[in-house]
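Journal club side-thread
Mid-discussion, someone asked how the predicted structure for our own chain would compare to the paper's figures. Pasting it here so we can look after the session.
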Amino acid sequence: MVQSATVSSIKQEGDRLTIKAPISDTRPWGTFTVLDEGPGYKIKRIEVNPGHRLSLQMHHHRSEHWIVVCGTALVECGETKELLTPNQSTYVPACTNHRLENPGVVPLVLIEVQNGEYLGEDDIIRFQDDYSRA
């Protein structure tokens, strides 16, 4: 039985095969693709365009782990800021103000692992946003 594939997830349920394509979305700052999800976790591939950043935000019900694949990430988490390069990572606890920015000239690609009881896209409070979504 195959649990997941690069392009799609395939699950066998009795005599049926269910193929689930990854969920992708375009945002003003770049794109994200949900690679896998299950009870209590969600894994995304996030690409942030050069010179763009996500909103300063917080989540009540989830924490996030970010691992940089390529490019440079400027991460604001609580009162700290740090620069991350490929193969470096950081942890964002639930209920903590945070922001992700690409200060570089090449796309920033990272893997985000979300953990929590509720992982909906509506669990977001924006404090500041370059795209007037706050």
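Post-session note: DSSP finds no helices and 13 strands in the chain.
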